[in-house]
Amino acid sequence: MYLYNTATRHKDEFKPQNEKQVTMYCCGPTVYNYAHIGNLRTYIFEDLLARTIRLHYPLKHVMNVTDVGHLVSDADDGEDKMEVATAREGKSAWDIAKFYEAKFWQDYDALHCSRPSVISRATEHIKEMIALVKTLEEKGYTYRTSDGIYYDTSKFPRYDALVGHARISGLQGGARVEMSDEKRNPTDFALWKFSPKDKKRQMEWDSPWGVGFPGWHIECSAMAMKYLGHTLDIHCGGIDHVTIHHTNEIAQSEAATGEKYVNYWVHGEFLILRSGKMSKSGGTFVTLDVLREKGYEPLAYRYLCLGAHYRTQLEFSYESMDSAAKSLKNLRALCSQVRTAAQNRAQQTDKSRAWKEKFTAAMEDDLNAPKALALAWEAVRNAELTPGEKLDFLQFADTILALDLFVQPEVSSEPLPEEVTRLLEERARARAAKDWKKSDELRDAIAQKGYVVKDTPKGQQTEKK
Ligand SMILES: Nc1ncnc2c1ncn2[C@@H]1O[C@H](COP(=O)(O)OP(=O)(O)OP(=O)(O)O)[C@@H](O)[C@H]1O
Ligand SMILES: [Zn+2]
């Protein structure tokens, strides 16, 4: 398998440290609001990666839930996103976290993203975070300001390794980071923040440095290393995390352990709106519930995401949602015809195996899901494969695509026109007499009346075209 590695800036062959268990950490949601479909695009690509890895290796997949410490600005400015939500909703920070986390998993499951092996909440790992900050302090990487304990990035010479020198010079120009008087370098970041003196926070803990809360970056390092060891095979996230969050994770983890933190950094590009970035903080976002209200099933959104490579930006529009929903419906209808023709029996042959290999090769080429999806379309229409071979291949493809390709479309509750009922009865008699030619002719006649007929174990079922 080849993966584009942000750290090396090219597609690298994936070699796990231990073939008995691949380790992967994915930055999880900050549960102060609904996840938007941009966030969800990132989890869909991570799910494709997880499913592809599992074709060959057992996988330990860890995802965190950030329920404290993610400030309004990724660069340690402003309030904690959780506390902002408390003011907005008049609920406790704990209740907000519980509510949005539960909602997050509902969306995650509805998109058929496979659940991580470990889900780690930041608030349940404060002890590990404090221990990591203490190690950094003992090794001389930290300093104290009036609002917290900071990491001194000038003590870590490889600080800009993930993003390259351009970024650091950009930062020195002061373009993105306002430097407080007490920060030694613009790129320094908080490991532990003190609670404000004049305001009690809802989420705060004792520490050797004073009451406060962890910085967002230390959360991921502490939890990733707790569950996956000092060196992870893969670390994923959205592209926005490269410059600050993941750069900081490397700095603090490698300074603490003296070992390489991550072998493959894999980042997904953004879902954007015509008007720009989709963001929770910016208030311009679409959720899965909004799509549901407009009549789209969640898997139509998964289909839309599979149609674009994870490293290209995807511009969201309702026209593209319409076409994804329609394509998914058509693909399912074709798959269902394949299953009927194969009488529900998959046939594994050299040919079907070759198709599976082509499909796997596409996914293993830096997760080329658009190509894998195109192969599913090619297979259903391929004249050289038998229905049984098609079924064998398509059932395999759906273990990765996870689009419910073989789901029966809902049977319409509208009464059928008399003429269609008559044709269906005639077709049932033809089938009972094994007159397949007549059966097919009658299927066409029914299609002309605007109905698709499918043969299921329960008999003929119709759906309006
Ligand atoms: N528009 C987007 N498209 C794809 N992925 C995104 C987008 N916005 C955020 N992500 C990714 O979603 C994941 C979850 O992010 P998180 O819940 O922390 O959202 P957030 O950064 O608080 O959201 P926002 O930036 O919208 O306020 C991260 O991996 C992040 O990189
Ligand atoms: Zn993270």
Account of the 3D structure:
The protein has 465 residues and is of the alpha/beta class. It has three domains: 255 residues, HUPs (Rossmann fold, 3-Layer(aba) Sandwich), CATH 3.40.50; 129 residues, no CATH class; 47 residues. It contains 15 helices and 16 strands. The strands form five sheets. Strands 5-4-3-10-11 form a five-stranded parallel β-sheet. A four-stranded antiparallel β-sheet has the order 6-7-8-9. A hairpin with a 2-residue loop joins strand 15 and strand 16. The chain is elongated, with a radius of gyration of 26 Å. It starts with a strand and ends with a strand. About 2% of the residues have low confidence. The structure holds adenosine-5'-triphosphate and zinc ion. The site of adenosine-5'-triphosphate has 18 residues, from helix 1 and strand 10. It comes from Candidatus Avelusimicrobium gallicola. This is Cysteine--tRNA ligase. Keywords: Aminoacyl-tRNA synthetase, ATP-binding, Cytoplasm, Ligase, Metal-binding, Nucleotide-binding, Protein biosynthesis, Zinc. It is an enzyme of class 6 (ligase). Monomer.
